[in-house]
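Methods — Computational structure assignment.
A single polypeptide chain was analysed. Its primary sequence is given first, followed by the predicted tertiary structure written as structure tokens.
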Amino acid sequence: LALSWVDESLAAGEARSIALIGNAAEVLPELLGRGIVPDVVTDQTAAHDPLYGYIPAGLSPEEARRLRERDPDACQERSLASMTVHVQAMLAWQRKGAVVFDYGNNLRQRAYDNGVEQAFDYPGFVPAYIRPLFCEGKGPFRWVALSGDPEDIYRTDQAILELFPDDDHLFRWITMARRHVEFQGLPARICWLGYGERARAGRKFNELVASGEVTAPVVIGRDHLDSGSVASPNRETEAMKDGSDAIADWPVLNALINTASGATWVSYHHGGGVGIGYSLHAGQVIVADGTSEAAARLERVLTNDPGMGVARHVDAGYEEAVAVAKARAVKIPMMD
């Protein structure tokens, strides 16, 4: 039935999302066997946790739970075998001409460890698509309305659109998010902003709180996936131009500079996305409470945090980052 819906949508030229409940280690080989080759293939799996994050093929969720409790080693072994089949199917599609990339939750590493020597023949999404954005210090920019009032988020939405009127992608996202993304808990929003843009947004949010247009402080943070706060050789820092994939200095420096800049909360954590032993990340949160003191902290944190991303990529030899640094007057000693 799902495939018939796909055929109908293709014939009609209509964009349509179709979800199929199944196990990738079973569904993907079945699709291959039918001669189906998708245009684009990726994964979204919690393969960094083979015990709890991946259900072995042939088991229902309840059967997997019972096996996990009865024999965790056997459960992990079956999960790894299923991940291996999953990756082999993706490699087969790549050989048949599909665009294949890894989402970044360590599926390839698990298959590689289980004997698939070609597991890394398809790239992660960062080197394939995102790194030019990282060279601009661009990454996830998040904010939460502490009032709990959705109208405060809608006012900040409008502020973002007014600040960056020429960013068509941003306009499309904010407009769609307002229509389709429901709030859970405190109302929040996310978008991608780069060096210079985050500081402008932070200043504006603080002004809105000061004026009362936004009724309570706004908390600003980001994802652990960012341009200059991570050492993660299988995701954010995969295939760096200078081979510095595993250099862990950058997240340490990011945490230190955010602390010195006056962030409200700085975290340093292990394993984000790909699992313990494979990554180090630094995070920051800064509160816009409408005061002049907050305005100064926001300016420093939201300039220096993405600025570390530009510097990290300049240091790695990316010409795009050098161009951004020169155009936006980012002071980087090793660039001179």
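Note: Strands lie at 40-41, 99-100, 139-145, 188-193, 218-222, 230-231, 265-270, 280-288.
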